[in-house]
Amino acid sequence: MAGDPFIVLQGDARDVAKKLDKGAFRAIVTSPPYFGHRHYGADRDEIGRERDVEDYLDSLVQVFSACRDLLADDGSLWIVIGDTRRRKEKLRVPHRLAERLVGAGFHFREDIIWYKKNNISSSSRDNFSQAYEYVLFFSKGQRSYADLDAVRVQGNEAVEGRNRVPPKDMIQSAPENPDREEIERIAKIIHGAAPGTPISQLPSTAQIARAHGYDPEKFCPTCYRKFKRHATRRRIGDHKHYPIFAVCNPHGKNPSNVWEIATRAHFGNEHFAIFPEELVEKIILFATKKGDLVLDPFCGRGTTGIAAVSLGRRFAGIDLYRENAEKASRNIAGAAASLITGAVPRH
């Protein structure tokens, strides 16, 4: 790729991946064709058209095994994938794929639930509507590059509006002059407490806050609770229900493994299996830094590439069909051009 911001290659990912530079990519982000759902073209070797789910899983493992060597040592693999029913029974495709990829050398880090908040109700008379898909997160080694601060979220109280936004001068983001001796004294009292110890003999949450360097009357920047109310219950010694002071990260709390993101509609004759850019952006922000290379071996309309170049990453995509590869190139080029002009790209 040299210094190019992106490239889209046409061909079978199992073959094309072997021609790319090993260790060059920080992340692989993709959504492969789902088993038995759609045909994207006339090629009978298209993944997803296999007669048997085991053959389908074999095909995916071949692709991702070929891609594993392309990852940097701290690289990660992200697969957005849904399940399939046959004779009213779920085939457990994501779970079985995860097991096979672990056998192929990947480390299974997380299964994230993508909740489609605008999901379409099912017409089935005996099945629930399918309102979610999986995002499978693997790493090449035991650890992978991660920037959690880039995807932190505000606490529930702030997001849901349960607490009003306090004045700026009443928000405290970091401790000021914590008193180590007082912290140790308080800890001894807590650890020495018994289940029957009267609350009056225990330090208040405000006292604990002051010891740790926080003004009890000021507010947490993440959840907007006053520090004299900012507590979490931990089991310490035999006293199981004493509130112990804890502070939210000033950048926000760790996001959960359930992501509520709306699906995207396609435009006219666009590629009709679109996963939303918001979903891809969250992955890229977490798993890569600016200038990193991102790969999508099932490029489609180029959603991963659009998100990647928009966030200052470089991108390589692969698609089986020339029409898709050309369309993805146009879409990604539009996103790249918008960074220069400041205009919103038209896909």
Shape: elongated
Provide the helix percentage.
25-40%
- Rg, nearest Å: 25 Å
Tell me the fraction of residues in β-strands, as a range: 15-25%
Strand order of the largest sheet: 1-12-11-2-3-7-6-10
CATH superfamily of the largest domain: Vaccinia Virus protein VP39
CATH C-level class of the largest domain:
Alpha Beta
Largest beta-sheet details: 8 strands, mixed
Number of structural units classed as domains = 2
Provide the succession of SSEs: EHEHEEEHEEHHHEEEHEHEH
Weakly predicted, low-confidence segments: none
CATH topology of the largest domain: Rossmann fold
How confident is the prediction overall: mean pLDDT? 88
In total, the number of strands is: 12
Q: Termini, distance in Å?
A: 24 Å
CATH architecture of the largest domain: 3-Layer(aba) Sandwich
User: Would you tell me the structural class of the helices and strands?
Assistant: alpha/beta
Number of helices: 9
Report on this model:
- With 347 residues, the chain is α/β, with parallel strands linked by helices.
- It folds into two domains: 6-151 and 255-341, Vaccinia Virus protein VP39 (Rossmann fold), CATH 3.40.50; 163-245, no CATH class.
- Helices cover 27% and strands 18% of the residues.
- The strands form three sheets. The protein has an eight-stranded mixed sheet. A two-stranded antiparallel ribbon has the order 4-5.
- α8 (303-310) packs parallel to α9.
- The longest helix is centred in the C-terminal third of the chain and has 20 residues, at 322-341.
